[in-house]
Amino acid sequence: MWNNIYTEQNHQEECANREQALQSSALLNGEQRTIEKCLRNYGGLSAANAERLERYTQWSDSYEEVPCFTQCYLSEMFDFYHEQAGFEERRIRQHFGEAVYEACKERLQLGADQNQSSCEHAYAGFHCIVSLENDPFILIENMPNATRVAKSAMKECLQQVDQVEWNRIADYAQFPPTEPIPCFTRCFISQLQLFDERTRRWRLPAMRQVLGVPLVGARVSGCAQRRGRNPCATFYQQFTCFVLAV
Questions:
Q1: What is the Rg, in whole angstroms, of the alpha carbon atoms belonging to the chain?
Q2: Is-above-0.90 flag for pTM?
Q3: Residue among 227, 144, 154, 212 nearest 185 (CA)
Q4: In the record, which residues are listed under signal peptide (predicted)?
Q5: Which residues make Cβ contacts (< 8 Å) with residue 29, sequence separation at least 6?
Q6: Are 202 and 242 contacting, i.e. CB atoms less than 8 angstroms apart?
Q7: 17 located within any domain
Q8: How many CA atoms lie within 13 A of 142 on its CB side?
Q9: 5, 50, 149, 228: which has the fewest C-beta neighbours closer than 10 Å?
């Protein structure tokens, strides 16, 4: 009887640890099976291994927390990596953009003395991709409708603010009511001369040409009437209205 109780208690604890590991790892739909497979040789999806997976965000340059996990995970989950051929250039460009591929090219390509990918190659390449995916200058570079001139203006304005604010560039995609980096929008709008200070009017044709917004035919009549608590906030509110108008 005691043996049965002990076995049941172990089973319950194992299930609880397993559930905790799943939650702490924030697994995506369809991802659990792949992770379990890739951890099979290291004790499965235990609480300890879940902590190891969380530490992947620290991305050591020389040490993979779970040996060969990245190669297994990539080959099972994504179409841009193949266990033997390695990273596929076309799909990397498609998924992550030209700028990320060019920045990581040396790590993504197989070396002259390599016939096929390895665990180290998979980790080094994916490490580079992930570390750059949210880089503020890469995010600007990957803006699909912005011209080279517009991207240059944004990068120049970004370098005028404290570097601790740079990671807030990603927050612009959520269109929050308060601008993530104060006065950033006003800066690049002024650089691109998209607002006529004399007439107090927006140059919408020029804006469409360099930024791709607002859409032709979009209802923007009320955008110029929006007001913020200061000129920078007003620029942000009005420009966001132009971007979101349909």
A1: 24
A2: no
A3: 154
A4: none
A5: none
A6: yes
A7: no
A8: 23
A9: 5
> Could you tell me if 225 and 213 lie in one domain?
yes
Question: Which uninterrupted H or E stretch holds 196?
Answer: strand 195-196
Structurally, the chain folds into a number of domains equal to 2
103, 132 Cβ separation under 8 angstroms: yes
Query: Are residues 92 and 113 part of one domain?
Result: yes
Whole-number Å distance between alpha carbons of 56 and 196: 48
Average pLDDT rounded to a whole number, residues 81-106:
94
Select the more confidently predicted residue: 29 or 220.
220
Helix pair 119-133, 98-108: axis angle to 10 deg: 150
The reply to whether 81 falls in a domain is: yes
Domain that holds residue 101: 34-45+60-133
CA–CA gap between residue 130 and residue 61 (Å, rounded): 12
Claim to verify: residue 152 and residue 128 sit in the same structural domain:
no
As a whole number, mean pLDDT of residues 161-190 equals: 95
CATH number for the domain spanning 224: value is 1.10.238.20
The CA-based dihedral angle spanning residues 62, 66, 67, 68, taken in that order and rounded to the nearest 10 degrees? -110
Predicted confidence (pLDDT) at residue 125 exceeds the cutoff of 70: yes
**Best mean pLDDT range from 43-47, 55-59, 141-145, 153-157:** 153-157
Whether 22 has a pLDDT exceeding 80, the answer reads no
Q: Is the peptide bond before 214 cis (omega within 30 degrees of 0)?
A: yes
Is the backbone of residue 193 left (phi > 0), alpha (psi -120 to 50) or beta?
left
Residue 5 lies in a domain: no
Interhelix angle 119-133/69-77, nearest 10 degrees: 70
